[in-house]
Amino acid sequence: MEQPGYDALAQLYADSFPAPYQCAVERRAVEAFVDEVREHDPSATVFDVGSGIGHVTADLVRWGVRTVGLEPSNGMRSIAMRTHPECHFIDDDALLARAAADIECGAILARFSLIHVPPEELPDVLAAWATRLAGGAPVLIGAQASRSADTIAFDHRVAPAWRWHPDALARLLFEAGFDEAWRMIAQADGTHRFAELHLMARRR
């Protein structure tokens, strides 16, 4: 799951998106997820999958949540480490099979990173998560949303990407051993081309 496009555009990405959230719904979804983590296990380590330049990882750390940022792009990870030296970032991706393999995982946050996983490979990713998480552990997935088909490929600037219908994503999570707890949807507007989904589920 290497992302060479993010290496090439890492600094442009950092300059274009200096804030961790692009709308209030994004922030509220992460805040609600943090509440879920604290309720489940205040000492849990959150894996921020696809942590990018690290600003959301840094928010979680500031809020007192033990967090590890997983980022396969060397360029993005380098910016994260330089900008947020108080945080821990490692070279890994959604399969959690490299640097994260020996770190205990208590919850997973994946904001707009699973969109780059080909739909036929996403069940394997979710199955890998299920093997790492205890019952009740929360996961939050953020993705551009589809209103019709289960998945729709779209013209992401950096790498191949797919939008997900909320029900289709919830179904895959259920099949992997997760039960949906809640979802938030931010509608498309002048800033966002597509509606955005934030779906929180718990390991059965």
Quick recap of the structure?
This protein has 204 residues and is α/β, with parallel strands linked by helices. It has a single domain (4-203), classed as Rossmann fold (3-Layer(aba) Sandwich).
Low-pLDDT stretches: none
Q: What's the Cα radius of gyration?
A: 15 Å
**DSSP summary: helix tally:** 7
Can you give the mean pLDDT? 94
Q: What class do helices, strands and sheet pairing give?
A: alpha/beta
Termini distance?
Answer: 27 Å
Can you tell me the overall shape? globular
N-to-C series of helices and strands = HHHEHEHEEHEEEHEE
Please list the strands of the largest sheet in the order they lie side by side. 3-2-1-4-5-9-8
User: How many individual domains?
Assistant: 1
Helix content: 25-40%
CATH class, anyone? Alpha Beta
- Strand fraction equals 15-25%
Q: Main sheet, how many strands, which sense, barrel?
A: 7 strands, mixed
CATH superfamily: Vaccinia Virus protein VP39
Can you tell me the CATH architecture? 3-Layer(aba) Sandwich
Count every beta strand, where a strand is a DSSP E run of 2 or more residues.
9
- By CATH, the topology is Rossmann fold
Keywords: Methyltransferase, Transferase
InterPro entries: Methyltransf_25, SAM-dependent_MTases_sf
Protein name: Putative methyltransferase
Domain Methyltransferase: 46-134
